[in-house]
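Sat 14:20. Reprocessing the chain from the morning session after the first attempt stalled halfway. Input below, unchanged.
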Amino acid sequence: MSAEITGSLPGGSPIARPAYQPKSQEQILLRRLMRKDSARIGALITLVLLFCAAFGPYITPADPFKIDVDNRLQSPSAQHLLGTDEQGRDLLSRVIYGARYTVFIMIITTFIAAAGGIGLSLPSTYFGGSADMLVMRVIDVMMGFPYILLILAIVAMIGPSLTNALIAIAIANIPGFARLARSSILVIKEQDFVTAERALGASNLRIMLHTILPNILSPIVIMTTLSMPSAVLAAASLSFLGLGAQPPLPEWGTMMVNARDYVLSAPWVVIAPGTAIFLCVFGINLFGNALRDVMDPRDKTFRQG
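Finished this time. Tokens:
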């Protein structure tokens, strides 16, 4: 660590004191986040999920698509740690391989929803007037439908498939992001630094993209982490109803719908994908709640580090 000279001893020896190194907001955030047990547990579960999604095809103990009717509905054993399904496929391999579909669903739907919500709210709220009123009325109509009912209606119109399920979930999540972005923009656009930038001749586009947008990202990031579990549950629900991913894809919701006839005779067929969904939602919710706590602007300890 670097040091600075602050004086000398009577004998002439210099007194060194470690130089002050100011911490960035990102360092403060990370340090406070890692102090929370919920953040560490959530981060660990999320990292395992991401690892399985990235390297699933290379770490599965068996081919997740290989049918072996001679070993169908085998209970957990040394050969099949989670047992086999109704077609003899290794459940552990299918759960690991299916993580990539879950991660894909979470990232794509949340990114589209966040981009759509910000894209609608940023220009309409900044300029106000009839454009803002029109956008908000459309958002109000969408929010008038129950979340899962809106998703089902969209999928029913465009057809059942994994791609259409992603589109439906993303569209259903746009109103929440749009509302959150609008409330933040209404506050920030009246701040003195925005008025000063406008007085200096900055264009409206520059003000929106370089001044307002960075200042609304904190609540958007928090909502992103909290929206991901909802996307996972919605995708699993659609698959369970036969409107999402279609067999033989090892998507966790699809695995559960295929195993519902064996709940009593072979419960491990349902427990494996069900536990995977639970751990995924639980871990991301833990991390999202911890992130919300440490990024709360009302918490003065965040600004003090």
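The first helix runs from residue 25 to 34.
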